Each structure stands twice: as C-alpha cells, then as structure tokens.
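Hello again,

I reread your note about wanting to compare the complex against the isolated chains. To keep things tidy I'm splitting this into two emails, and this first one only covers the full assembly. Below are the input lines as submitted, including protein chains and any nucleic acid or small-molecule components. They are followed by the predicted structure of everything together. The single-chain runs will come separately.
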Amino acid sequence: MSLLVTCPNCGPREVHELRCAGESTRRPQARPTRRELNDYLYVRDNVWGFQREWWFCRSCEEWFLAERHTYTNEVARTWHPEPAERRA
Amino acid sequence: MTRLAPRPGELIDRSAEITFAFDGRPVRAFEGDTIGSALFAAGRRVFSRSFKYHRPRGLQCCSGHCANCQMTVDGEPNVRVCVTPAREGAVVQGQNFRGSLDRDLLQVTDKLGGPFTPPGFYYKTFIRPRRLWPLYEKVLRGVAGLGKVDPNGTPRRRVEVVHEHAGVLVIGGGRSGLEAAAVAAAAGERVIVVDDGPVVGGRLLADPEGRSRADELHAQALEAGVELLVPAVAIGLFEQGFVPVAHGDTLVKIRAGKVVVAAGAIEQPLVFPGNDLVGVMLPEGVRRLVNLWSVKPADRAFVVTADERGLAAASDLESAGVDVVGVLDLREAQPPNLEARGRRGRVEAFAVNGKVTPCDLVVMSGSPQPDYKLLAQAGARVEYDAARGIFVPTDLPPDVEAVGAAAGDVGEPGVPLPVLGHHGDKCFVCFCEDQTKKDLRYAIEEGFDSIELSKRYTTVTMGPCQGRLCHLNSIRLYAKTTGLDESAIGTTTSRPPHTPVTLGLLAGRPHEPTKRTSLHHRHEDQGGQMMWTGPWRRPHSYGPDPAAEARHVHDAVGLIDVSTLGKILVAGPDAAAFLERTYPNRFSDLRPGRIRYGVLTGDAGRIMDDGTVARLDDETFYVTTTSTGADGVYQWFTWWNAVWFMDVRFAQLTGAVSAVNVAGPRARELMQRVSPDDFSNEGLGYLDARHVRVAGVPCLALRIGFVGELGYELHFPSPLAEHVWDTLLERGRDLGAAPFGLEPQRILRLEKGHVIVSQDTDSESNLLEAAMPWIVKNDKEFEWVGKWATQEVAQRGLRWMLVGFESPSGAMPVEGGQVVVDGVSSGRVTSVRHSAQLGKVIGLAIVPHALAVDGGRFDVQVDGRRVPMRVHLGPFFDPAGEKLRS
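Full-complex prediction:
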C-alpha cells in the first residue's frame, strides 16, 4: 500500500497519514437474526473493483468516504458523507 | 599492475591515492576507482566463488548487475564491489569459500557434485531420515551460501528515511534519461534523476565518443535545475508514482507525478560451455574497465557478439593495446559449437567448431534486453519480439513512461541460438544459482514445464541478479526445449526489490515514540522508576517497596499522576442521546454534576474500553477513557457520528488536560487546605463532579475511587500541572502526602476487584462474562452498539466468568497462568498481586461459569504444580464501599 488518498479537507495525503476503516457496512435497524448479525459483523463483499470504504484523516480528524479500487488502489472519489447516505 | 597510461575521460584522479585492505593486504587505488576496478588493476582476477559449485568467478558485467563480484565490505556481506567506490581504510573480504578465494577447498563440489546435483537434489537426497534434516541443513547452508552476517561484529549503521516529492522522476541517468529530465525541467517541473552511478551518463561514460556528450547532458540537466540522486538505485515502482530509492544509508521515498523509466538495457550472456570462466565478460564490463578506470583487461581477447556492443568493445580493447585475436559476429553466422576452454577456472582459449584460439579474455554479447522490470512491477505488459530475440514492455500504466533502451530502443541485434555449444555440461544459464542448460532440461523432463514452476524448482532468476542475466536465456532455452514459443511461455512476475537491499535499509531507523505526561520531570526528580505502559512512560513506583506506597494510601494520602487517561468532551443538544447509543449504560437519567462508570463495546459485543462519564450540564459530558484508548475512542465516537449526524461535538482533551488522583483517608483534609471549595460529602459526594479551584487553578474534581479510598481525581490545564502537583505535596507534607506509582495502584485496585480493560479482558470478553450485567440497559429506546451481540450471549448462556480469587496456600500464580478444572485447561489468571493490607494473595481470573460462586474451587498451574484457589465474589477490601463514601 503506497497510495495517495485525497482527504476532502486536507487534499492528497500519503496513505499512512490516514486510517482505512474498511468497507462501509449497513447496520440493521432493528434486532437482526443471528445470521443477519453475523453477516453485518463479519461478512464483507470483498469485491475486485471499486468499493466504498471509510477513511479517517489523522490531520483534520474527519471521517470521509472513498471509492477505491481494491486491485489498482485507484481512488475514484472521496467525500464527506451526507445524511442521506446513512449506512452503518 | 595493469593500469594503462592516462586516458581522456577516465574517472580516476591519479593524484589522489587511497588504500584499502583486501583479505588483510593493502590495495592501492585512485579516487574514482571502485573496489572492483582497483582489485582488478592490482591483478586480482578471481572475485568470488559460485553459489553451489564454488567455481571461481571474475568480473563479468562490471555494472552492478551480476553476482560475480560480491564481497564483504566493512562487515556488510554481498556487496557488489564493481560499483562500490573504493574508500580509504575500507576492509574488504572475499566470501563463500574455505581456504582462500583462489584455492577454495569446497571446489570439490564442482568436480564431484556436478553430474550428481540436479535441481532438487538436496531435498530429494537428504529427506531421510527426516530427523537428521536439521543437521544436513546446517552443513549444506555452510557450503552453499553467500556472505555471512556477523551478528556481533557489524557496527550498526545509522539508516535514515527521507521523503521527497517530484513532478517527474527519471530512473536512469543515461542519454535518454538526461534528455527527458532536461525537457521536463525546462517545462517547470521539479525533476529528480536517480542513477546507479558512479556519475550520470550511463553507457555514454564508457564510450570514448560519447563521453563529451555525457558531460554536455550532465551540464544541461544541472542548468535546467534537475536534481541528481547518484549513486542510487530505485528498488521498486509502485502505484501513483511511488519509488523507494536506496541511496547509501538513506532510503529516499519519492512520490512523483510522473515516472520516466530510462533504465537502459542489460547485456545478455551467451550460453556455451565454459561461459562462466574467469575472463569471460560482457562488453560493457570490458569498456568500463578500459574507459572509466584505464585498466587493461587482458592481453589477448576473443569477441563473440550478436550486436554492435561487442564490436565497440573490440575497438576499445584495441585502443588499450589488447590483441583482439578473433571477432565472431553471430549476425553473419552462427557456428553450432562454441566453447571457452580454461585451466583452474580461468579462460585460456576460445574454440569455434573445434578451431582453438588461445586468449585470456572472451567478450560475449547476446541481444541486449531492455530493463523492463520496474515497468512490469508497475503493471506494464511485456511482449516477446521474435525478430530481435528480446522482451519489450508495452501497455504502460498511466503516468509511467519508458524511454531509450528500456523502452526497447536497442537497435537491431541478431538473435543468437539459445545454446551455442554442446561439448561439456557447464553451459551456465543462471550464474547466481549455478544452473546450467542441463539442469533446466532436467527440470522440464521432471514436469516443471511452466516457467513460474521451473523458477521455483530450479531457482533460476531468484538469485542476487534477480533475473537480469538469466531470465531471457532461460525462457529461450525453455522455448527451444519444449517447442513452445517465447510469448506462450511468458515472463515470470517482477517483484520488488528490483535490486537487493539490506533489511536494515528497509527497516529504517529504529524509532520508539514516547509519550510523557506534564509531570514527567517531577516523577524523575522524586525517584520514580519509569516503565512503559503502551506508548507512555509512567512511574512504576518511587522506591523499592510498592507495597509501602499502597499502605500509605490506606493510611494517609497519596498522589498519582493519571494524566495518561483519555479525556474527551462530548457536547451538544444530542450529547446524552449519543452516549445512550454508544454505551450499554443509561445516561439520560444521569443528573448534571454526577458520574457514572461506562464500558464501550462494538456491535460484536466485545469490550473495547472503559472509563467514567461525568455530566457537567444538560448538554455537556466529560468522558475519560483508558490510557491507550484515547485515540481509538475519539475515532470511534466521531465515526458513529459521521453515520448518525447527531447534534453533538467532540473535543479531544487528552493532552491539554492533566489529571492527578488524590486518594487516602486524609485526602479531604489536604483538599481543604489547597482549595476554597467544599470537599465534604455534602459539597462533593461520592460520584459527584464539580468545578473547583485547587492551588488557584480551575479544576474539574471527580470524586471516584479506583484505588478504594476516599479520592478526588483532579483534571486541570496541563501547563499548570507541576504547580498543582507541587502545591499538593507541599501543603500535605505534614499529612504524609506522597506520590505513588502504577504498581501500588494496581495492588489497590485489585483489592477492590476493579477491572483493567485489556488486562482482565481480552478480545473475546463480553459484558456478561466480564461480570458487568448491571451496566446493560436493554430497555433503552435505541438499539445501542453491542446490544444484539450481548443478547445473543445471554441467549446461548454464559460459559465463562471473570471472578476474584484468593490463594489459600499463599502460592502466587503468574498472570496468564492456566486455570485447571478436572485436569482440563479451563481459563486463565488475568491479574494477581500480594496485598499487604489483606495479608493474602488475591487476583482475578477467567473461569468456567459454573465456578463463579463464592467459595468456588479451581486449580492454577504454579511452577508445574496445581495449586487450589478459592473464588471470591465482590471486592476484597471494603466490600460495602464505606471508605469510598466516607
């Protein structure tokens, strides 16, 4: 991993100035079944291609979302989430 | 000496003599010499012993590609001396021999082993009996190896890491590289050129006609503002223009907008019997000896070449007074039977179809192979160009460019036959690993017919040259043997490092970041014995007797620096609702000025962190975390709110705020001396939080009792920490106020049965099995983080429980000691201490749930014996908490 990621606040940053918190997930709204809970906690799509993931910028201490290609590490887009995008 | 009269363009400065030691004897060199050129000029021809057969090997490429000149320099093994500048006082030694470099006793492996040691020989032969393998391995490693690392003798060099950013990075400072650099610099870019040196110019340097062009380009580049990093080697090409460069003892990590690979081409050996003899060289090696260092390489030379390079070398040799006794241009004819003949490992003659010409140098030159390895690492494809017998890079990734020979611009070389001789076995394909054409054919016969499999089996391309001199030839030999064509066989994967680098350089300079509290110097002055706790330095104790410090807290009053606690302000209209969601606890009913203990879990229900939550007013909470959890909890809170968008803000106060816990029966008396505020039970009761003034400093006082006695945790601005600390000690002197360290604190908290997260819990611990069911409030409106998993635990039933225990026999288990029930390992001891106050050994342990009853019995393994322990539920000391509330 030696990619650059563009923090929406701070601009392009070396990856070690940021923390990747993994694929974004969707938190169940009400009590899930055991299987749903397992899926939410432990099962990831693990796609080959662009995935939406959470990143934390250690400089401005803001969380943002990124679309990163899991093979080429190309980061297509980074943005601060909007309320309409609530997922977790 | 074989040094020539001064030549125009030579790199050496004959007025500056230096001396270094080789195998204990002094060797004279000039400034500008490499260790290799100086040794050669002094008459040395054998530079190393080969990996497996211990055959003598001499200079071959003289360009830092092959492994033939690897020596140990100043304790560092496997240094290519042909490109390592000679330094005054350097200590150079040969390696991989018994006896001497010239007379290696292990050469017997060549005479005896040759026919009997095909690929895989060792693993097939020494597999039985299996138990003897460690012995075999030790012996084999000793005879088949490279240099040795001396774990004691090598002085530790200081390695640095430097980060650079460039508009354009050019790898390779030859003609194409310098031209590209000058163009980019003229366009206003910051341009860095990396070249393996000794100075930029690449192949022009060793070309009498190119030398002035090299100087011109060099000057042009400097004038255009190009920065040169020389001698330096790019060890990889990663995504988005990231290139780590080994530059002496510095690892330069360059991030470039565009990377131009101008790495040139690598001259290829020809495959014929005797092609590894000392005195069989590549043209550039010969030209560098003659033109850079003015050394006469031999008396009589034979040149066999598939391109112009060999002819250029022949003309240079003639200019140096070498008798060129034969030139065979393979573009004109390819005689089927070439052979270099030698004695004692040195070439003595070259035979073409049986016609023998005596000579002491053979120059061989196959089709020069573009150095595409960095491009391939970056994702370029590589295609076989059958007309020229080479692989060329294509489909370059964005922002990567190839120019010059690296891009395939190597002229129109002829295509030599994959094997040019049949007499004898020793047609080497891979010099680093001693693999011959016969070994490769053997591997194919055994079924290793994919190039990737064969690479792993024969280790061709896996030696120090990383395939530079063997990759092309091995693929072409494969093609010939299997009948497939080269493009169908393909190349093996290129991986970093492109050139071997020391582990020390990759590891970088050892850093151990340290966090110190604002009271650090006070602790040192007061005799604190500092210890590591995570990244923090904290006082273990202030004297030889932690128990006495603990007793002092029980008897009088003690002070402990708890500034390492994480401190986060959570404020806003939704602050209470936010904490209700993130903690299992209820906070909506926490009144302003009150404190509640809280534990954080993830949605998997595992305990992450704990601390106190004080409500300062309706919309403001002051949250403390564990010492190592400060950053993690802050990120955890802000992440959840990046999802929830609640009206709440977070301020990380860990560094800005220091904290001291004042604890002991006389704590109140002390506080009343240093503060105008009311510290009575009415003014500041147990679990109350108030803003107060202490020694004139505004503080947040939290009345909590981690150590089990009446206690006030004071939080105040860090710049005033020493003032507050000093005042407390001074004004409390006659009360017996004294600092206490972390160890006495651990004894005291254990007496209360208080849990330390990550000491008494682990990544499996959940709230119910850590005996904290009272925290869990499932009737809250929101599905708090961790609720569902905690419900699942309740549903499946409890298996474990964290319990207190005492040791009736007084035997002291170790932390981590096994709990044994009915002879089966059933949990572990998480904490244990001797409590002087209680006069017994107490601890916490994770035990099977069924044993979690007062008086429950279990054994713990102590020094190989099983020692019975007795479960004790609740605090050992002051179970009713009267002291805390006093």
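For quick reference: The interface with chain B takes residues 2-4, 14, 19, 21, 27-32, 34, 37, 40-41, 54, 56, 61-64, 72-74, 80-81, 83, 86-88 of chain A (CB under 8 Å).

B.
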